[in-house]
Design brief:
Blueprint lengths: L5 H6 L3 H44 L3 H7 L8 H9 L24 H19 L3 H32 L5 H58 L1
Length: about 230
C-alpha cells in the first residue's frame, strides 16, 4: 500500500487549487495566532481573577481592596471595581461605620453607580471579545472555501477525462487527489478554530458571571452607605 506523499500532491495542484490553499493558509496562520494569544491572555486573567476574589473577600473596605489590586493588570474585574470606587468618595462630614468610604449622595446615587459599573463591565467584555469574530469566521467559512476548491478540481478532472482517449482510474486519480486536498486543508483550518472558539466563549461567559457578581457586590455596598 502506497503512502500519500503530500509534497508530490502539492506540486501537481492546479493554479485554482493553489490559490484556494493560499487563502486557507492565511486563515489558518491568522487563527492560530489569535488562539495562542487569546489562550495566554485568558490564562493570565483566570489566575489574576482568583487572586482578586481572595483580596476582595479579605478586604476591610473598597479603598483597601483597590490598593491591594493595583498590581493586577489583566483581569477585567479591577477596572470595574475602580469604576465603582471612583464614585464612592471620602466623606467630608460623614463616615460609614463599616469603612472609610461613603457615598456622595448629593451628586451620585445607587442607580448611577449601577449604570457605571455595568458600562465598565460591558466595555471590558467587548475588549476581551476582540478578534473572536475572525475565529468564528474561520470555523464557518474555511470548509466552504476548501469545498469550492474540491468542486473545481473534480470538474476539471472530469472535463479532462472526457477529452481523454481512455477513461481509466489512473487518468482521473491525480485530479481527484488535487481536488480533495483543498477540503482537507479547509478542515485543517476550521477544526482548531471551532474548538478554540467554543472554549474561549465558555471562559468568557464564566468571566461575565464574575463581573455580574462584582457589580452586585459594589451596588450592595453603595446601598449600605446610603442607608
Amino acid at each position: 500500500m502506497n503512502e500519500l506523499n503530500l509534497l508530490d500532491v502539492l506540486r501537481q495542484t492546479t493554479t485554482v487549487t493553489r490559490f484556494v490553499l493560499a487563502i486557507l493558509l492565511i486563515f489558518s496562520v491568522w487563527s492560530w495566532g489569535i488562539i495562542f494569544s487569546k489562550a495566554l491572555l485568558l490564562r493570565k486573567i483566570r489566575k489574576e481573577s482568583e487572586t482578586f476574589w481572595k483580596v476582595f473577600r479579605r478586604g476591610q473596605n473598597l479603598s483597601e481592596i483597590r490598593t491591594a489590586c493595583e498590581t493586577l493588570r489583566f483581569t477585567p474585574l479591577v477596572p470595574v471595581l475602580t469604576a465603582g470606587v471612583d464614585l464612592l468618595l471620602p466623606a467630608s462630614g460623614r463616615v460609614h461605620s463599616q469603612g472609610s468610604l461613603a457615598l456622595k449622595t448629593s451628586t451620585v446615587n445607587v442607580a448611577t453607580i449601577q449604570r457605571t459599573v455595568q458600562r465598565a463591565a460591558a466595555g471590558q467584555l467587548t475588549e476581551l471579545e476582540k478578534r473572536m469574530t475572525f475565529l468564528a469566521t474561520t470555523a464557518s467559512v474555511a470548509p466552504f472555501i476548501g469545498l469550492f476548491g474540491t468542486v473545481w478540481g473534480v470538474m476539471t478532472s472530469f472535463a479532462g477525462l472526457a477529452n481523454a482517449n481512455t477513461a481509466t482510474l489512473r487518468a482521473v486519480a491525480p485530479g481527484i487527489a488535487d481536488a480533495l486536498i483543498a477540503t482537507a486543508f479547509g478542515l485543517f483550518a476550521a477544526i482548531p478554530a471551532v474548538i478554540a472558539y467554543n472554549q474561549f466563549v465558555y471562559q468568557m461567559r464564566n468571566l461575565g458571571g464574575q463581573l455580574d457578581d462584582l457589580q452586585n457586590e459594589i451596588v450592595a455596598m453603595a446601598e449600605g452607605l446610603v442607608t
